[in-house]
Fold this protein.
Amino acid sequence: MADAAPVPRARRRRLAPQAHRSNALHPGAWWLWSLGLATAASRTTNPLLIGLIVGVAGYVVAARRTSAPWARSYGAFVKLALVVIGIRLVFAIVLGSPIPGTHLIVTLPEVPLPDWAQGVRIGGRVTAEGVVFALYDGLRLAGLLICVGAANALASPARLLKSLPGALYEAGVAVVVAMTFAPNLIADVQRLRSARRLRGRPDKGLRGLLQVGLPVLEGALERSVALAAAMDARGFGRTAAVPARVRRTTAALTLGGLTGVCAGTYGLLTAEGSTYGLPVLGVGLAAALGGLWLGGRRSVRTRYRPDRWGWRAWAVAGSGAAVAALMIAANSGDAGALHPGVVPLVAPELPLLPAAAVLLGLLPAFVAPVPPPAEAPVPERRRPRPPRTPRPPRTSRTPRAPRTSRSSRTEEKTS
Amino acid sequence: MTMIRFEDVSVRYEGAAEPTVRGVDLSVPEGELVLLVGPSGVGKSTLLGTVSGLVPHFTGGTLRGRVTVAGRDTRTHKPRELADVVGTVGQDPLAHFVTDTVEDELAYGMESLGLAPDVMRRRVEETLDLLGLADLRDRPIATLSGGQQQRVAIGSVLTPHPRVLVLDEPTSALDPAAAEEVLAVLQRLVHDLGTTVLMAEHRLERVVQYADQVLLVAAPGEPPVLGDPAALMAVSPVCPPVVDLGRLAGADPLPLTVRDARRRTAGLRERLAGVEVPVGPVGAAHGAGAGRDAVPAARVERLAVRRGRVEALRRVDLSVAPGETVALMGRNGAGKSTLLSTLVGLLAPASGSARVGGAVPHRMAPRELIRHVGLVPQEPRDLLYADTVAGECAAADRDADAAAGTCRALVAELLPGIADDVHPRDLSEGQRLALALAIVLTARPPLLLLDEPTRGLDYGAKARLVTVLRGLAAQGHAIVLATHDVELAAELAHRVVILADGEVVADGPTADVVVSSPSFAPQVTKVLAPQPWLTATQVRSALRAAEGEATP
């Protein structure tokens, strides 16, 4: 086996090493990358470009995600994106669209509305232009959602929260605990609903769901009390003695800084305040950050193996930033190609330069460390097949056999 | 040197008439494994909580007297300020985890204490090796087995190098092999690192031989006694079968291990040499005999069940006759619960068939189903919704279309002296199990399934459960129980079925199956081998019968 296994691996030369704890990519890098893609998606309504962005994000997710629970969220985000497009289209059809159109698809019966509801229309003419405009608009939102979903699937949320500054640590823990509770809650609901069947009550339907509500909440409450006790016994919330002077300075800096940020933002947004806006915002931010830094001194916590920001993280974050920057630049240059017109209806074209820019976003699929095979995702559910259908033996692909067996073993433990 | 010192400690919770524990005045020396023994409800968890400071800082209530741990007074030190000297693991390891992967979990306590990063790294590596977790370091905790989770929980409190470890029922939910795994680790900590371990456990047969001292709380409100395990076992109301056998043989000092028992009870073996071993537990002949020609209560043929993409069961054949008791055994995750769930129709077979009294469970409507089969789940609380026992019983009568009062009569029979207006949540584990059992029995199902019924039960509650289930079997109920408890299986089951990785690997009369297996053999069998005795009760009644014949 030792001489057989490396052959297919050697043929595929990789830029990236196998992932382990020490070379794990900083979760912030994944977020910057995906926010870059999302910015790019928000700058265009060209369905071809948005499709390309979604494809790039999907490819990177497929190449680099693990079998961790959060990695499954990508599918949920894709479904959500489809729902968003659907809702946008339904609104455009039912409530009408401000886009003047000539290609009539269908005329819905219009609901007569009283005078005071002037400007609102239900039903009426549905034009191809209006539908296409709504589709483009929905696509843009969907693209944004899918990019965020990609970051969710690739970056461990717990590790991201670990990178928060010390003063925000407690808030981070609260979020982590909430995230581990959600799956437990769902498991509780399922268990209790099936228990209803054991008492001879229907285990399906809304009523069943409502009746288990109280026991589920009780269980969740009990679990959180037990967790709080465990955390307390493990030293959560130990604080260092901080001189009163430092404490007061922290409070003053944080409060003053936040006030400054508010005032500065207001100044920037109103026409009159544009002169003082920027400096006030800057001072406020600096004060708030100083307050956070000082506040961190109260916490005695240290960090175990924090993720380091190495060149791979720069490359991943940089590729996302580059996509965003190039798209913004393209927008100021050749805006027409990025926003295909709907009146009159024209077929969208793929502008080459922006498309090439989007492809830069594929970089993480080559430089980010590869998850080890045991952690590679396995299909969640396969259609049950009668066990006696024999699998044709695949002699040519024997090197893959140990891999599938290992991943199935990890899956077995989850049940 | 004294590590834990109790000075006239008593704890009383808000609204309770009597203190939960009182008169605790003793000291635990450094580097000892102390086992806290007593029936349910004597305040074992409370006593453990006073050591970590969770009682009274977290739970409320009033603590009188003083507890000092490594010289720190728990009245003035909050649990978090004791975190570097006391490590606590509660009953449910899942409720203990704060992070999501093994390595982060091991580091969590040290991070809270503010240890230097290089120290943390070194200790995590050491602990991974000490507990045999190195292969699991990157695994999400939710994907680990029960034994692995328990080891991670212990490891997570070990990394700050506490001098005292407090454990509440560390092996109750584990199969025999996983329990051995955890206990081996504890023994190593005591021997190699000089850690003081204070532990409460109901399954004495697993742990008593490891204890240096036993802390016995014989009854609620009685002051605890600390002393030599063998001496205290002689007066303890709860004791493992090996001690029971030792008492029977009149051994002094009482044996705590199978090895000691073999040596000290040689006389007993001679006395038993002439006595015929009864076939299986009481009623076995009747039950099995009646079942031969009757319709089977449950019949499973070439059953395969999938959970997600995992084949939880493969080609399982099983048939249970009326009046027969079958014990399903096997490690955690072997498919025992899946088989029970399939028999009540919670899961549909992927192939093969499961029939209960001739009907297909997963196609039956719930109201119809409960007349054919009843399941008491692992957590009996899942079956209880109402806020009083009386309300629960009335609901059960309605669900089963039974005459009003049917369920209440069953409760009175199984659990005498329980008030109508008690909240099910305030019952003890054993009482809750009895209530759930009564609810299930209201519909008079011919097939009764129990999943892990003895988890959290003390010996007294277990003995009552055994009596009840034997009575039900004698009335013709077929009973299937999934359990890790070999002693329970030996007491109760006519047949034992062992599952491994979703397949049946052994199926036969209890005596044949468990006697031949080193991990599933009950203690009495090990002691009296090669004679095939299973339980101390069996030996006692056989001796009584033999001597009764001899005297007249």
